[in-house]
Amino acid sequence: MRSKVVLGRLLHNRQARYGGIALILLIALAYIGPYLGAYDWTDKDFLAFLSPPDADHWWGTTSIGQDMYAVTLRGMQKSIVIGLLVALFATGLAALVGAFAGYFGGWVDKVLMWGVDLLLVLPSFLIIAIISPRLRGASWLWFVVLLAAFAWMITSRVVRSMTLSLREREYVQAALYMGIPRWKIILRHIVPNLSSLLIIDATLNVSGAVIGEAALSFFGFGIQPPDVSLGTLIAEGARNATGYPWLFAFPAGLLVLLVLAINLIGDGLRDALDPGSNS
Amino acid sequence: MSILEVRDLTVTFPGGIQAVRGVSYDVAQGEVLGIVGESGSGKSVTSLAIMGLLPQNAVVSGSVKLHGQELLGMEEGELTRVRGKAISMIFQDPLSAFTPVYTIGEQIAEAVRVHQKVGKDKAARRAVELLDLVGIPHPDVRAKAFPHEFSGGMRQRAMIAMAIANDPDLLICDEPTTALDVTIQAQVLEVLKTAQAETGAGIVMITHDLGVIAGMADRVLVMYAGRPVEQGVVDDIYYRPRMPYTMGLLASIPRVDGEQDTLVPIEGNPPSPAALPPGCPFAPRCPMHIDACDDEEPPLTQIGGGRYVACIRSREIEHKGMTGADVFPVPVIPPSDVARVPREERETVLELDNLVRHYPLMKGAVFKRRVGTVHAVDGITFDIAEGETLALVGESGCGKTTTLQQIMQLTPPQSGRVVVLGKDSSRLDKAARKALRGDLQIVFQDPMAALDPRMPVGDIIAEPLRAHGRKNVSQRVAELLTLVGLAPEHAERYPQQFSGGQRQRIGIARALALEPKLIVLDEPVSALDVSIQAGVINLLEELKNRLGLSYLFVAHDLAVVRHLADRVAVMYLGRIAEIGAVENVYDRPAHPYTQALLSAIPLPDPEMERSRKRILLEGDLPSPADPPSGCRFRTRCPKFARLSEADKRRCVDEEPSVARLARAKDHGAACHYAEEIEVITASEHQEEQ
User: Fold this and answer.
1) Is B362 exposed, middle or buried (0-12, 13-18, 19+ CB in 10 A)?
2) Is residue A83 over pLDDT 60?
3) Does the pLDDT of residue B617 top 50, yes or no?
4) Residues B304 and B433 in one domain
């Protein structure tokens, strides 16, 4: 019943519709777009270094003659997947750990929060630096796991404190008296009531992950050249943003569009889940 | 000579929401005007408008004259000189009306010094005098206490002391006793009367409790959807109402003297102020509704001395001498089959045997040590037979809720036994406990908090069904919604799209989903308005009779209990003071506490209220962390005070247990000197009828 009602409300929500369409277009651009361009992302055009956008190179070229259009779209394929997955993992983990710690209290709370505090004090960059050489050659999905693993702790503390107050609500007690297992109560009553916070957190995490991945790549971890991601492109393009704006504007613009689309979907989802909103 | 003249007062909030639409009244010196109405009828907004306390964005028009001086549109500086001096206000929640960081004495002295040129010492002395006047023991010591050190009743007294500090001409009381227990309410109302006698002020008393108004007011103004619909002398309003809404309101209140058989609910809900019906705002709910009612809103017209009614059919009502029961359809509730079987032959669904629940009182942040014990529930024993309703009544802090939680948790109690449907809670394994939960369900007090706001109603009701693996869930949900008087289409809506009464019906539907044998009702109607409350009470009664349910009903409203319960147990400080059949306990209470409790309840009957003698209790409930030795009630007991020294010894040394009274079959009291007396007498008016 709930999923049906929420889906209905989501489809009725104008923001969510626009956001959904934008996201689909962006994904289509990332995966279908390369076939439309004249160049492959590995091609180098030695006759055009740093040429501005023109009919041949739609979005211009880089300093080594790569076609920006092909390279940006190649980067976006990675970034969309990394951004979405990291946000999903990080927020999901934060919600589960926070809600379980807050709801059960006692030693469960102590152990989980001890873990959270430990991860908070450890310098995440150092850990990633130590681990990533061992992952060289392994799937880049490991990189998603690593990024997510260091992005959820603060949210989970917020979730925990909100759960502490939700736990005392009568509907949570009512569910317990109905004979519903505790883990189900958490998933069914506590997490949905935190959805506003979680959705905002997830949206922020998407852009955070794309940028964070770039920072790591810059230091030589994560996505390695010659492979590219939006993050690495933005990091490189930012240095020459005034002289050769196309190096920066296209990847950055796509990142803004991506985050905006996800933001719209998130807002719509929040409204659809929150019966108090009028839309 | 009237002190306050309100003429055609209207208040409009942004978005065109008209909260108050043309209120006019006068208050004379020494007169008490009662304003009654349900939540959202605009009664509080009216008084805030008079005080000039509404937010900036509210548009107020009309005229409010105090001693002929116009208050609306007055400059803030001048208004502050009037506020607290000529008009004072007493708010509902006394805790939020005091600043927590100053002592009570300082705050009262401040109120004095703001308006009078007196020295600090003199103001402080005046504060002590005022606290003494409102009956606070050891006022010189208590004046140095902080608000949180006062109990609710004491705070409300201090609030009254502050309000009368400058001899105001007008006191506005906004639900002054709603947050208090009945015995405390009786004390506070008594103090209000003293305060009025002392100052000779006029009082505007705003409340939803028709009993309080009957005892306090000289004249009554009934409000509905932001307008007064009836106004008159208190006796006229109560005995000869001329507007169907007033009639319905009076017919829908449960009465502690057990005068009526079935409550008469008013169907439907009050209109939203943003979407008022075209004609009379009450027309959609009115059983006397005719086409002419929809044409235009009837004005408040005078029909005889000081009596105003806004109804086009009021003449007709007057000629035919109709009452609420004539106008509103009286619901027919089918009788119960189980009730015919004698109680002893029925199955016992719940048995509590000497149940104990103590909480440790801990101190210290790092190294916790036990500094005491809260005796929340201290050995209570009762049982409920099939098809029976047992009510557990008592003031806040007496252990009702703890008892309830102990039953619902189905875990082994600290001491004693909880037996549900013949199964001892201490011998249940996980599967048996879950199975038993299907037979034991609960309805909570606050219908908003008890329903997950993020779940559609269909899912809420389906939840217990799915948890216990039932089939045909959606069909059963539709059935249940129909059973509690809602439509099956409502399943796709969220709880907040429903009104309070409807939400409580959803809560009841959820409790009924698994076809339980016993339902625990935790104050199921106390959060609802009277006209809605009657409908829910009737529904509960009907369901009980039709489905053969048993109820454990926890309440503080003794009038509702009388109406719904078969047996009643009165709790005081974690122990049962008196238990027995409702007729026995209400008509011949034997424990001094029950007697005081019953005599404290205001009756919606002005004549009876005037002639009643109240048994007023001294002080507040002692802390359950440190209950008195022997009989727990002795510190407040009016009977104990009259006993000889030798007899008193027994109360101090020996804790009384519930003993059956000699004359009655089902009636016991925990008092060494139990003696049945009649507290609620029938009025002459009722005898005539």
Assistant:
1) exposed
2) yes
3) yes
4) no
Q: What is the mean pLDDT of chain B?
A: 86
Nearest 5°: the CA angle B283, B285, B288 is 65
Number of A–B residue contacts, CB under 8 Å: 76
**Whether A179 and B438 lie within 8 Å, measured CB to CB:** yes
Residue A239 predicted with pLDDT over 90: no
Do A179 and B454 lie within an 8 Å CB cutoff?
no
Output the pLDDT for position B220: 93
Is the pLDDT reported for residue A44 higher than 90? no
Q: Is the pLDDT assigned to residue B566 strictly greater than 50?
A: yes
Q: Which of B433, B437, B497 sits opposite A178 (nearest CB)?
A: B437
Which of the listed residues B550, B579, B608 is the one where a domain comes to its end? B579
**CATH number of the domain within which B45 lies:** 3.40.50.300
Q: Which of A5, A180, A192 faces B467 most closely, judged by CB atoms? A: A180
Alpha carbon of B436: minimum distance to chain A alpha carbons (Å): 9
Residue A94, both tokens: 């934060």
Cα(B378)–Cα(B403) distance, integer angstroms? 10
Q: ipTM of the assembly? A: 0.77
Least confident of B201-210, B239-248, B361-370, B638-647: B361-370
Q: Which residues of A touch B474 (CB under 8 A)?
A: 1
Q: Alpha-carbon distance B248 to B242, whole Å?
A: 11
What's the domain range around B79?
Answer: 2-222
Residue B604 has pLDDT above 70, yes or no: yes
Check CB contact under 8 Å for A170 and B444: yes
For the sheet containing B518-522, what is the strand order?
B440-443, B518-522, B550-555, B389-393, B567-572, B575-581, B667-669, B659-660
Do B91 and B147 fall into the same domain? yes
A174 interaction partners in chain B (CB closer than 8 Å) = 442, 444, 450, 510
Going along chain A from its start, the domains and CATH numbers come out as 2-273 (1.10.3720.10)
Residues from chain B contacting residue A273 (CB–CB below 8 Å) = 454
Residue in chain A nearest B466 by alpha carbon = A180
Note whether B281 and B297 are within 8 A (CB): yes
B84: left (phi over 0), alpha (psi -120 to 50) or beta: left
3-state secondary structure of B371: strand
- Asked if B417 and B354 touch (Cβ cutoff 8 Å), the reply is yes
Asked if A175 has any chain B CB less than 8 Å from its own CB, the reply is yes
Task: Please check whether residues B83 and B171 belong to one and the same domain.
Answer: yes
Confidence of residue A277 (pLDDT cuts 50, 70, 90): low
Is B218 part of any domain? yes
Cα separation, A205 vs A87, whole angstroms: 5
What total of structural domains would you count in chain B? 3
Task: Tell me which of A173-187, B323-337, B443-457 is least confident.
Answer: B323-337
Asked if B434's CB is within 8 angstroms of A171's CB, the reply is no
Q: What percent of chain B lies above the pLDDT cut of 90?
A: 17
Cα of B27 to nearest chain A Cα, Å: 42
Do the Cβ atoms of A95 and A250 come closer than 8 Å?
no
> Which chain A residue's Cα is nearest to B464?
A178
A78 lies within 8 A of chain B by CB = no
Q: Is residue B300 part of a domain?
A: yes
Residues B172 and B308 in one domain: no
The verdict on A276 touching B (C-beta cutoff 8 Å) is yes
Q: Considering only the beta carbons, identify the residue of B408, B449, B494 that sits closest to A169.
A: B449
- A169: closest chain B residue by CA: B449
Nearest CA in chain A to B514: A178
Q: Are residues B64 and B197 in the same domain?
A: yes
- Please report residues of A whose CB lies closer than 8 A to that of B468: 179
Question: What are the residues facing B10 on neighbouring strands?
Answer: B21, B61
Of the candidates A222, A226, A218, the one whose C-alpha atom is nearest the C-alpha of residue A43 is A226
Residues in chain B: 689
